[in-house]
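Researcher: Go.
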Amino acid sequence: MLSLQENIRPSSDLRNHYNEISKQCRENNEAVIITVNGRGDTVSLSYEEYKRLKARIELLEILAESDDDIKYGRVEPIENTFDDLRNMLKGEA
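Model: Structure:
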């Protein structure tokens, strides 16, 4: 399960304490929510955390598409899939 800690900071902190916020994101795997006039405006994450979240979202999208394929009967026996792959590798497809 994803457990990303959050910390809320005003936009002035982004300007005045960027290095501290950057370190907080990188070292503590925290998401820093930047507020403007007391309302959430922007989220700052470490680059590594961003890549992990993006990969998880992409995987979830693939799984959702797979669920739809099963739901709507867009499935083939596995033998057909392997035959298609073999043909592609041989350059026959």
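Model: DSSP finds four helices and three strands in the chain.
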